[in-house]
Amino acid sequence: MPRISEHVGIERKPKLGGGGPGKIPHRHGYGGGDDGDHDQPDDFVSPKDRLRRYRIGMAAAIVAFSTFFIGIAVSYTLRLGVTHWDEDLGKSVRDAHPLALPYIRLFINSFILIISSITLDLARRGLLAKSEFAVMGIAPPRFKTELPWLGITVVLGVAFLIGQIMVWNILRHQGIYFNSNTRSGFFYMLTGAHAVHLAGGLLVLLWALAASSVRMRFESRQIAVEVTAWYWHFMGILWIFIFGLLHFSRG
Amino acid sequence: MQNPVPITTQTTSTSWLRRYLFSTDHKVIGLQYFFLSLAAVFVGMLLSLLMRIHIVWPKVAIPFLGAIKPENYLAFLTMHGTLMVFFVLSTTPQNGFGNYFLPLQLGASEMAFPKLNRAGFWITLLSFLVLMAAFFVPGGASLAGWTQYPPLSAITAAGPGQGHGTDLWLLSIGLFCLASVLGAINFITTTLKLRARGMTMMRMPLTCWTWFVTAILTLLAFSVLLAAAIMLLLDRNAGTSFFVPSGLVVSGASVAHHGGSPLLWQHLFWFFGHPEVYISILPGMGMTSHLLSVFSRKPVFGYKAMVGATIGIGALGFSVWGHHMFVSGMSPYAGFAFSTLTTAIAVPSAVKTFNWLGTLWRGRIRFTVPLLFSVGFVSLFISGGLTGPMLAQPALDIYLHDTYFVVAHFHLIMAMAGVFAIFSATYFWFPKMFGRAMNHRLGVLHFWITLFGAYAIFMPMHLLGVAGNPRRYSELTGVQYVAAMAPLHKFITVAAIITIAGQFLFLVNFFWSMFKGASAGENPWQCTTLEWRLSSPPPQHGFGNNVPIVHHGPYQYGSPELNGRVAADDFLMQDAPANP
Q: Which of B66, B135, B374, B426 has the most C-beta neighbours closer than 10 Å?
C-alpha cells in the first residue's frame, strides 16, 4: 500500500542542498592512503594514481614558487623608477646604477641548464615508460638504463651552480656587491634565490640516484624523478625569465 | 531509517611516539595545530589584557613585569597581533579543523602528502617557539607592529626591540610562510585527488570549498610574504637597501643604506595581508554555512551562490590591498580603483549574509551551542562588515585610519567573527574528535558572556575612533580631548577582563568534557556528511578499506521525502544508497 504523504495537493520536488542525486561519475582512484613508503596497511592506491597526485602537488608548488619570484621581480621593476633628491647636484637622481652583466658566462650557464633539462627529460620519459610495466605487474623494471641520464643531469646542475658562483665572482671583482645599489641587490637576490631553488631540485635527484643502493620502491623513485623534472623545467624557464629581466633592465 | 554501522577498523601497531607525537595521521596533526593555537590564543589574550590595563591605569605595576614602559606596550601590541593573526586565526580554522575534517568529509583516509603535513606542523611549532623567544632576547620583542613597516623595522637603532627581536620575528614569519605553503599544497591536492567516488566538487560540503579556496589564497599570498620577509631580513643583516631610503637619520645617526623604498614593503605586505584576512575568515564562513544548515534542518540556501561567493571573495581579495595604504600618499586614481574594488567585495559578502539568513528562515532551529556561535558569527560579521565600505572611502579613511575606529572594524569582522567560527566548530566537532559531548549549559553561558563581551569591548571603540582617539599609543593622558574619553576606556577594560574571565569557562568545559563528558555516539547532531559515518573518535586509519560511495549532496535535511524516497528521519547521509 502506498504511503500517504503528509504533503497533499502540491507536487513539490524536495529542495536539494547542492548536487542532487545522480549517477556516479567515473574517475580514477579515490580514498586516501599514505605515500606508500611506510607501514600503513591501507595502501590500496595504484602507483598511477600516486603519480597523478604528486603531479598536482608539484603544479601547486610551482604556482607558489612563481608567486615568490614574481613578487621579487615586480619589486625590482618598481624600484627601478625610484628617485631621490641629491643635495649636491640639486636635482633628483635615479637610485639604480647600470649593471655590466658578464654575458659570456651567463650564456654558457643558460646553455648548460637547457641541456640538463633535456637529459633529465630523457630519464623521466624512460622511467615513465617503465612504470607502465610496473603497473601491469609484469616484472620489476630495472632502473639502471636511466641512471646515466640522471647522473649527467646532476653533473650539469652542479656545473650550472659553479657557473653562477663564477658570475658572482666576476661581479665581485668589479666591486659590485650585494649591498652596492638597487640593481646589484636585486641581481644577487634573483640569481641567488634561483640557485638555492635549483640546489633543492639537485638534492632530490641525488636522492633518487642514491636510492638505488637503498631499498626503495621503483614507483617512489620514478615519481621523484617525474616531479623533479617538472620542477627542473620550471627552473629553466624561470632562469630564462630572470636572464631576460636582468638584460632588459640593465640600464 | 538509515542505520549506518560506524566504521571502526582499528589497527594500532605503532609506538606511542609515532602514533601521537611524530604522527603522519591527519587527525593527530589537526589536533596538534589546534592545541598550538589554544596556547597562542591565551598568550595573545594575556597581552591584550596587559595593554588594556596599561591604557586605563598606566602607573599600575604588573606582577613579574613592573610598570609597563612605552616600548613594552609596543612589544605587546606587535606580539598580540602576530600571535592572533598567524597562530590563531590562520592556523585553527584551516590547519587545525581543515586537517582533521577535510579528508574525512571528502571520504579520504589521509591527506595527499602525510609526511609533508607532519613537516608543516613541526615547522609551525618551530616558528611559534622562535616568535616566543623574542621576549627573552636583549631588547625584547619587536616594536614595529604586526605589519613591520620599514624603515622602523629595518633599522636596529630605531628602538630596543628592533635588534634581535625583529630578526626573530622575521625568521618566525618566514618559517610560518613555508609551513603554510606546504599545508596549502596538501589541501589543494587532497581536494582535487582524494575525493571519494561520487563526491563531485558540487557535492562537497561548503567547509571543504572554503578550505580549498583558502588553500589557493595561502599558496599565492604567503609566497609573496616570504619573499618580502627575506628581503627585509637581508636589509637588516646583509646591508642591502630594498626598503631603506636614502638620507635617513635614525636616533641622531645617519643610516648607511641608500636607494630603497619603504612603500615597496607596504605593497608586498598588504598583497599578502589582505588575502590573509580572507584566509582567516573564509573557513569560518564555510563552517557557519555548514552549521546553520545542520541546525536549521534545512538545505543551505543557495549552495551554488555560496560556492560562487567564496571564489569571488577569494579572487577579489587579491585586488584590494591598496585600501590599507590610502594615507601612504598614493595616487588618487589608484585610491579610487582600490576603493571601488573594495566596495565590490561587499557584493559576495552580502550574498553570503543573505544566504545565511535564508538558511535560518523558517527552519526548525535546534538551539545548540554551535548554532548560537554560528548566529553570533553572522551578527559580528554584519556589525564589523558594515564599517568596511566606510573605511573603503579614501576621504573617510584618511580621517579614521589611525584611530580606534579601524581597531573596532577589524577586531569585529576578523578577530571576533573568526573566533566565533572557531568556537562553533569546536563545540560542533568536539564529539567527533573526543567521543564525548561538551556541557550544554556551560557552553550557553560561555556564548552569552563572549557575545556581550565582544560587543561591549569593540562597539565603544567606534566612538573613540570617530572622536579622534589615535591607536598604537601607550599613553595619552596628557592630551586634553583624549583624556575626556577615559571613562569609555575604563568601560572597555572592565568588559575585556570579564570576557577574558569567561573564556576560562570554555577551557574548563573543554578539558572536563574531554575526560568526563557524556558519551556522544557517532552522529549526535544527525548530520549528513561523511565524517559522521565513522566512530567517535575516528579510527586511526579513517575509512580504511570501507571507502564510502557518495550518492547525495551534503545538505539533505528537513523533508520527509528526500529524493523521492521515504525517509523515517529528516536527513539523508551522503553515502546512503541512491535507490531504496
A: B374
Residue ranges per domain, chain A? 47-82+102-248
> Which residue, B390, B207, B237, B218, is CA-closest to B306?
B207
Structural domain count of chain B: 1
Are B224 and A71 spatial neighbours (Cβ–Cβ below 8 Å)? yes
User: Is B250 within the bounds of a domain?
Assistant: no
Distance from B357 to chain A by nearest Cα, in Å?
A: 15
Instruction: Answer for the pair B72, B140: CB distance below 8 angstroms, yes or no.
Output: yes
Distance CA B290, CA B371 (A): 10
Is the domain spanning A47-82+102-248 CATH 3.30.70.100? The answer is no
Question: B197 vs A185: CB contact, 8 Å cut-off?
Answer: no
B146 has a chain A CB within 8 A of its CB: no
Residue B253 lies in a domain: no
Question: B254 lies in a domain?
Answer: no
Closest by Cα among B181, B37, B29 to B99: B29
Give the ipTM.
Answer: 0.91
The parent domain of residue B462 ranges over: 17-244+259-566
B209 has a chain A CB within 8 A of its CB: no
Q: What percent of chain A has pLDDT over 90?
A: 47
Question: In this structure, are residues B374 and B355 in contact, taking their beta carbons and an 8 Å threshold?
Answer: no
CATH number at residue B383: 1.20.210.10
**Contact criterion met (CB < 8 Å) for A67 and B220:** yes
- Contact yes or no for B242 and A185 at CB 8 A: yes
Q: What is the mean pLDDT of residues A154-178?
A: 94
Percent of chain B with pLDDT over 90: 75
